[in-house]
Amino acid sequence: MVTSFRAVGLCLALLAVSPVAAQAPAVDKSAEQAARRGQSGNLVGHGGPVKAVAVSNGFFASDVRVLTGSFDYSAILWEMAADTAPRVLVRFADHAGAVNAVAFVHGSPRALTASDDGKVALWDLATGKLVHRFVGHESKIVGLDVSRDGEWAVSSGWDRTARLWNLRTLQPGPVLSDHKGPVNAAVFSGSSEVVFTASYDGDVRAFDRASGMFQRRVHASGQSVNVLARLAAGTTVSPNGLRQAHKKDDLVFGTVNGQSGIVDGRTGDVLRMFPEVDRPILSITDGSAYGSLNKIGVESSPDLVALGSGDGRVRILSARDGRLLHDHKTPFGPVWALAFVRGTVDEPTALYHAGLDDFVTYWPFAPRAAFDHVDTSQYPRRFQLSGKPDSAIAKGEIQFARKCSICHTLTPDSANRAGPTLHNIFGRRIATLPGYPYSPELKTLDIVWTPETISKLFELGPDKFTPGSKMPLQVMSNPAERDDLIAFLQRATQDSNAPVDAKPASPQKTP
Question: Which secondary structure element, helix H or strand E, spans residue 347, and what is its range?
């Protein structure tokens, strides 16, 4: 299912399950899921799809740090050391919505997270403490970038603005507000004096960082520009075979209709177009994205560009001459986040990719390791059930898997999901489960969960039936589907029945 915005809507993505997969013979998904999640280097700890990944090695000596953001409302800082499994250092849980973007602050033990709640949080990585919360966006934030000197951050939001934040004074900066659609990405120029923005309106534009004034239209694609990244200084081979230097403001972009390429941020010239695909480009990273600076403080050559698309396809291309080096299609949903990982030499040797799984997959491509193949995978995600439903309960299980299991478990442990467990929900008063951080508004409502009130919740939507809820918009207009879901929940949420999602995504509990 194609959407016009940078991030594929999660609820829509869950509904876009292949009919072939839905009718396939039943398989044992648990063993395959456990095997995939347990692969060496994978980052296992979130309780929902992972929306953002950033890698840094510039500040932490020889140790690598990885920052991930998830639909479970949290971000995690990971330690990556040679010959040991990834280790969770800190879990950041301040946001009231999905964490869509993360970024390290160059030359500083700090990092940023941004969320559906419209806020940007600045964190101290050593202590795990919140340093500051930047507020100003009126809707979700989907992108972050930090200037090379670590002084400024820019966030891109669906309120049609990009906003600048001073990371030293902790004061808001200029608001970039010339676009006519949601701003999907914003990046600093090499000098940090210009901010380039990409929007649903199809434009890449340039703004003065100091004043926030619009300077010029850089590129007009005619389709939503979903992703944007600035290439570090390096070299390319032009279409006529001549080797030429990358300028500091060469930009890589990707659109909703599957186009991608490199454009000169100063002149607007299209320097190269990559082979087109038939799905939206949703994520992008280049070989310099590992903290942007190498260990001696200069930008490295961006030899590689990786693009992730809505059908799970990951392509690695040469930024020098546009050659397609690796092309893999996985069955695990849209690729929302990509990040290269360098080896002992100053070149990427592996790639993190993230999407609808509740973990981040580590894929070494030098030496090359195979991806799961779309034709042989058993679709192990908990919301992609197989088998033909033959009863109301079986149909309700599918409704739960696609609409609810991203945020809720059926076990006593909520397993780092965004919402509280539904275990023993019937007869429970709203907002009374111990230990879950409910919205204050919910605690004032006089609702007890029964088949009737749950049906009303999905008939009207949480924004109307439970105003103030953090629950994403979910409306089920079909009464039969609501009845099927309730029939399944009445059986699966009780102590005497084995739930569908018996194993938690992580041994850690939701704060």
Answer: none
Q: What is the pTM of this model?
A: 0.80
DSSP state of 462: H
Q: Which two tokens stand for residue 306?
A: 């990786």
pLDDT of residue 129: 96
How far are the Cα atoms of 56, 145, 146, 328, 460 from residue 149, in angstroms, in the given order? Answer: 15, 12, 8, 36, 49
SS (H, E, C) 229-257: EECCCCEEECCCCCEEECCCCEEEEEECC
Q: Which residue has the tokens 């296992």?
A: 44
- The secondary structure of 196-233, three-state, reads EEEECCCEEEEEECCCCCEEEEEEECCCCEEEEEECCC
3-state secondary structure at position 186: strand
What is the pLDDT at residue 387?
Answer: 56
Q: How far apart are CA 406 and CA 382, in angstroms?
A: 8
pLDDT of 384: 56
Does the pLDDT of residue 172 top 90, yes or no?
yes
Q: Which helix (H) or strand (E) holds 364?
A: strand 359-364
Contact 410, 499 (CB under 8 A): yes
pLDDT for 375-429, tens place per residue? 555 544 555 555 566 788 888 888 887 778 878 888 888 777 888 999 999 999 9
pLDDT at 164: 98
Strand order in the sheet with 110-115: 99-104, 110-115, 119-124, 130-135
pLDDT (mean) for 111-139: 96
CB burial class (10 A; 0-12, 13-18, 19+) of residue 498?
A: exposed
The burial of 163, by beta-carbon neighbours within 10 Å (0-12 exposed, 13-18 middle, 19 or more buried), is given as buried
SS (H, E, C) 411-456: CCCCCCCCCCCCCCCCCCECCCCCCCCCCHHHHHCCCECCHHHHHH
